[in-house]
Write a structure and sequence with these properties.
heterodimer; A: 2 domains; 16% strand; B: alpha/beta; six-stranded mixed beta sheet; 8 helices; binds adenosine-5'-diphosphate; binds magnesium ion
Chain lengths: 381, 231
């Protein structure tokens, strides 16, 4: 027998309790990792290759207010601007599905390659899209989810405009951070809505990164004191502001995580205290045999630490395996495209487990230290 | 010179030893100025009514309790002056414990229970195995080394406990009512072993007992009453 095998035998003496405490740590850490990853994914701005050179222009009042189409030539003339495309959210329902399906945007198809160079699709499909004003292209994720092929016809009823549009799928693209959206001709949108002369937002391609700040300032200035003042910002900033519109998710997830960790500490600490209390007499016997306090502390710490880390291995490892090798888009019904368990999150969860092991061993260690051999021997089994 | 020899021959020398518990305003005197010498190789039995201070005396001699006054020298060391950690080492090397309720670790086999105190020594695995097997054979349980405590009878459990007490080769073995939970046959076996230890293995054995028949196995009996010796 070694000290190590003695500790293991002690930890496993009540197999059901050991299993339950390992599982409670595992489940809680699984939950914690899931929350942290979800939080990170939700607040992660898109890092598309092209995003660094894109500026989004929206109505200064709110995203729901449209912009006049006549702004386009003015923006186009600003030095450093390479291309400007309208980008209007159609808000269509697909097949009467109530839940979130995919977003549809009306835009200028000619500028697709310039603005969204990362969206890859066969040239033939793109040409077909350009030619047919009633066609649309759709991201591969949505195409796969709804089993759509090139040539299929789909119909979308807007929840914003009194319009139902018929589309023929001309192409399927992939390679963007989120291959879900449906893109179609803004002209088709204008016709169907009675030529309102309005767009949702402008998406601007800037020539170089150095031009970005100047272009943003120039766009904002161009419409200052007009009837439609705008807010121009980088795509990253735009996405972030969009997320803050989702509500205070960060705070919510943060509070839930804190509660999870706190509950976990209480559960583990009380389990550990119980496990040690049951063995008070034995610990007194060990003291009589010559084991010192610090050796008993080490036993308790090792046991508590071991159980917590085993739980972490199962919980964090399980989360990692599930989210890395599982199909997250499928599991979440398309809400999450990526669900990356980063080394930082793994590190944090493991750190939580390690601290848990230490914290849980404090109370039992103190009571063992306080109890003399004689008093310990008097405790009943 | 003569007194020096006397001291050398005494393994335990106790002078004016007292233990007073304070419970609020009331003082409970467990031991009242006791003086006692125990010679090396003696099998001393301690008798007396319940609450007379027998366990307290035994615990102080064995270094798991501290007196409130007086001196207690064991092999020339004043155990009352050792600090916690020195005392732990001292117990490991010099004292073997046998308890009324055996106090084996339930998840460890007989072998592992006996090996436990050796984990604190520098002995390697092979040396430990030799010591453990020797101790188990001495108590007649060489063939039970892989049994768990619950697979043993009470008498066998107590013999394992004696093996655990002997495995570090201490010069002093203390036993607090070791036969209190045993049937008469098992008690007889256990007492026989303790007697052999003092007679042939040169151990000093101090045993607390209620039972005059058990005390008869010892070489000397002292009586305690209300914390005082009455011989
Ligand atoms: N922790 C304690 N607090 C107060 N009194 C105690 C304590 N432990 C023992 N005593 C008292 O000390 C006396 C001697 O106890 P003990 O040595 O256990 O007696 P014995 O072993 O002879 O039955 C008893 O009166 C007992 O009540
Ligand atoms: Mg007693």
């Amino acid at each position: 027998m070694t000290v190590g095998s003695f500790i293991i035998k002690n930890a496993l003496r009540n197999k059901r309790r050991a299993t339950l405490s390992v599982l409670s740590v595992a489940v809680s850490l699984f939950l914690l990792v899931t929350l942290l990853v979800a939080l990170r994914e939700l607040t992660l701005p898109p890092e598309d290759a092209g995003a660094a050179l894109r500026v989004v222009v929206r109505n200064r009042v709110s995203l729901a207010n449209p912009l006049p189409a006549r702004q386009r030539p003015i923006i186009e003339k600003i030095p450093g601007v390479e291309a400007v495309s309208p980008f209007t959210w159609f808000g269509g329902n697909f097949k009467n599905e109530e839940s979130m399906t995919f977003a549809q945007f009306a835009m200028d198809p000619k500028l697709l390659r310039t603005l969204f160079g990362e969206a890859k699709m066969p040239e033939k499909q793109y040409e077909d899209f350009l030619k047919d004003q009633r066609s649309a292209i759709i991201g591969k994720l949505s195409a796969d989810k709804y089993k759509l092929k090139v040539g299929d016809k789909i119909s979308l009823t807007s929840t914003i405009y009194p319009a139902t549009l018929e589309f023929r799928i001309a192409g399927i693209y992939s390679g963007t951070i989120d291959d879900r959206n449906l893109l179609f001709h803004h002209k088709y949108f204008d016709e169907a809505t009675g030529d309102l002369g309005q767009v949702g937002t402008w998406w601007v391609k800037v020539r170089s990164a150095e031009d970005m700040p100047r272009v943003i300032t120039a766009i904002n200035a161009a419409f200052a004191n007009s009837s439609s003042e705008v807010r121009a910002e980088t795509e990253r900033a735009f996405q972030l502001s969009f997320i803050s519109m989702l509500g205070n998710i960060k705070l919510l997830v943060g509070s839930i995580s804190t509660v999870v960790v706190f509950t976990l500490i209480l559960v583990t600490a009380s389990t550990m205290s119980m496990a040690i209390r049951e063995r008070f007499r034995e610990l007194a016997v060990l003291k009589a045999l010559g084991f010192r306090r610090r050796e008993l502390f080490a036993f308790i710490l090792a046991e508590s630490f071991g159980l917590a880390l085993l739980g972490a291995l199962i919980g964090v490892g399980g989360a990692y395996a599930l989210y890395t090798y599982g199909n997250i888009s499928h599991m979440t019904g398309g809400i999450f495209i990526t669900f990356e368990v980063t080394p930082k999150i793994i590190g944090f969860a493991t750190l939580v487990a390690a601290s848990l092991g230490i914290v849980a061993s404090i109370a039992p260690s103190i009571s063992v230290a306080r109890t003399s051999v004689v008093d310990g021997l008097k405790t009943l089994d | 010179m003569l007194s020096q020899v006397m001291v050398e021959a005494n393994i335990v020398t106790i002078r004016k030893l007292s233990k007073v518990y304070q419970q609020g305003d009331i003082n409970v005197t467990a031991l009242n100025q006791i003086s006692l010498d125990i010679r090396a190789g003696e099998f001393l039995t301690l008798m007396g009514p319940s609450g007379s201070g027998k366990s307290t005396l035994l615990h102080i001699i064995a270094g798991i309790d501290r007196p409130t006054g007086g001196e207690c020298h064991v092999q020339g060391v004043d155990v009352t002056r050792l600090n916690e950690s020195e005392l732990a080492d001292w117990r490991n090397q010099n004292v073997g414990f046998v308890f009324q309720t055996f106090n084996l670790i339930p998840v460890l086999t007989a072998y592992e229970n006996v090996e436990l105190p050796l984990l604190l020594t520098r002995l390697n695995r092979q040396q430990r195995r030799h010591q453990v097997n020797t101790a188990l054979e001495l108590v007649g349980l060489g063939d039970r080394s892989h049994h768990l405590p619950r697979q043993l009878s009470g008498g066998q459990e107590q013999r394992v406990a004696i093996a655990r007490a002997l495995v570090t080769s201490p010069s002093l073995v203390v036993a607090d009512e070791p036969t209190g939970n045993l049937d008469s046959q098992s008690a007889h076996d256990v007492l026989g072993i303790l007697q052999t230890l003092s007679q042939t293995a040169d151990k000093t054995v101090i045993m607390v007992t209620h039972d005059p028949k058990a005390a008869a196995f010892g070489s000397r009996t002292i009586h305690l009453e209300k914390g005082e010796l009455t011989n």
